[in-house]
Amino acid sequence: MARVLPGYREQAKERIITDSLPVFIEHGYHKTTMEEIARHLDISKGTLYLYFKNKEGLFREVVAALRARNREELLDLLQREDLPLTFGYIFDLVMRASEDYAAFAFELYAAAIHNKELGEILEEDVREDIMLSREFLDQLKEKGIVKPDIDTCITARGFNALFIGLFTMAQLGISRDEAKQTWEEMCRVWLVKD
Amino acid sequence: MARVLPGYREQAKERIITDSLPVFIEHGYHKTTMEEIARHLDISKGTLYLYFKNKEGLFREVVAALRARNREELLDLLQREDLPLTFGYIFDLVMRASEDYAAFAFELYAAAIHNKELGEILEEDVREDIMLSREFLDQLKEKGIVKPDIDTCITARGFNALFIGLFTMAQLGISRDEAKQTWEEMCRVWLVKD
Amino acid sequence: MARVLPGYREQAKERIITDSLPVFIEHGYHKTTMEEIARHLDISKGTLYLYFKNKEGLFREVVAALRARNREELLDLLQREDLPLTFGYIFDLVMRASEDYAAFAFELYAAAIHNKELGEILEEDVREDIMLSREFLDQLKEKGIVKPDIDTCITARGFNALFIGLFTMAQLGISRDEAKQTWEEMCRVWLVKD
Amino acid sequence: MARVLPGYREQAKERIITDSLPVFIEHGYHKTTMEEIARHLDISKGTLYLYFKNKEGLFREVVAALRARNREELLDLLQREDLPLTFGYIFDLVMRASEDYAAFAFELYAAAIHNKELGEILEEDVREDIMLSREFLDQLKEKGIVKPDIDTCITARGFNALFIGLFTMAQLGISRDEAKQTWEEMCRVWLVKD
DNA sequence: GATGAATGAGTGTTCATTCAT
DNA sequence: TATGAATGAACACTCATTCAT
Fold this sequence. Notes:
The structure is a homotetramer.
Chain A: H1 8-31, H2 34-41, H3 45-51, H4 55-79, H5 87-114, H6 116-142, H7 152-171, H8 176-191
Helix pairs in contact in A: 1-2, 1-4, 1-5, 4-5, 5-6, 5-8, 6-7, 7-8
Chain D binds a DNA duplex through α1 and α3.
């Protein structure tokens, strides 16, 4: 690689972030070693520290990139005109987008409990997700798909919490079908005009 | 200590389980060392291995005891005649009972992803919790507090998922009030007769 | 057990020695734990230290008892009138008698290298064995079975060394037949009149 | 140290192997700690694990190197034209070459009893040694030094077994002279024309 | 920028031995 | 005499991080 090119550093960093993701996904944060990452990327361990302060720093950027990617994909999907606006379809969409994240979502949450800074980042993430949901619900309201009298602010929060809960249950072995069925029924009662 | 008393072993084991809990709570499973636990209990590291096969074994029993305690407390509370059967009150109750658990719930979930056996235990736990909720909802149905036409099986699942989601959000910094407000509103829409 | 009987201590000690042997045989000295021995004997670990200074002390007595037993058996056999005095038969006899010993003979030898006292005990053992062989060879000489001109002192030493070497080889995987064939041929050349 | 030199890794590994030998010799395998080895080599414990999977792995390579060195030395010596082909001389030669090995030969043998893989390695070693002896005996036969009618295959086995036995006895305190005298006399009777 | 050899603090676990009862 | 709970020194091994080249 031509190392004098401007932007080389950025590109290299991005490559590390992208290619580290599957390694972290395979074993989770704790059980993934810097050694393993370096081996998979076919670079030296030292190089990792050239671009990231430490393992945690690398991991954060990996997670941030994953979240950014997921959100983008999701936004793209949600804005397609031909989207079948059934709740079941939305569920499948978000669930699929969250799949990769699952491998270390809980490790992140666990770490956030003892790490204030990380906690703030994750809180911000959650709030953004809720905002997204709210916008989505507002759209559905306009289209007359959901009841006009719901408070989209609170409901978006409940909407996301329900998803997080079902996602958690799914990770623990509750079948995808059970989760989806629950999601659809709850959404129907919550949101749909009788 | 009277070491020859019958039942001494059981008591000693129980004491270790009880007194290890706060240590695990303080730093979570991974960052808690056997050394630290021993120091807090004022016993030697070797003694820990007298009662538990390894760190994981100790942790499992600590978690099991905590869950048993929580469930018992909860059942006791729910069966009191004078219980104010508002959803907000229930929320506070369960939230408080889950507080200690929070410190490593996510670590458990994370571990379960790569550990099938643990996964099965946690799934069983979740299913038990759902059954409990279902019974509770059935009671409320009988008392005419919730709508007669809801499917308590599915709703119990949604009920628990919503709680787990709000619990997760609360750990990540969403305020207790926001969570509670969301809970109350969602429950109202789901369950209460208009 | 009647603990006031005179000789109780001796009997108890002997029982421990006898019953520890199979435990040591199973895993060798190093990998056998006092815990394991106590469990097999159905007594407490503390009791072991009532009769023996430490693990090494117990082991020494176990080994001494085994050697005594082996020697006695061997002497008995060698003195039977109807003994078929072929070298192959002798080989089988001694080999069988040494079988149990094999499990830790090498550990003993290894330890003797760094432990002078143990070294002296084992040297004494070896010298006794050589004396025994010498007596045996003298008998065979009298009976005219071996050549009259051999120096039974030196030959006994060679006789035993050859056995130890073949025994060692047998432990390392050389087949019993190869060992026996070698023994018979060497003895023939050494000892038998042409 | 020039760490980027090609072959540095190999040299470093070899240095560890070479310099670990005396440490293992001093206390034997079991009582030698990785800590001790690192201290003697003036490197960190971690570095040892950079080059060897674990203690056993290091030990195996140490032993292999020692055996290779011994065999090479021996072959060199045996092929010298001016070799005084007396059995006593050979004995001294091999005995000296085996001296270092003595410190853990018995530990190896002991381990082989419970470790099939190691057992196979050692058996192979023994068979190689026997082959070597056989070739040597064949040479002596050609030169007319030993009797023409001996079966060099079986005799080589006996030859080696006798050596192993005397070597063992020597480690247990039998004097070198006694051993050598026995060796010479046995060889004379076995091998030399009257 | 890149390397990869070196580090060393940290951790779970074992087990012979002791001693109060 | 017998117990068995308690000890604590030891030890192998890991891995994030550093830094000379």
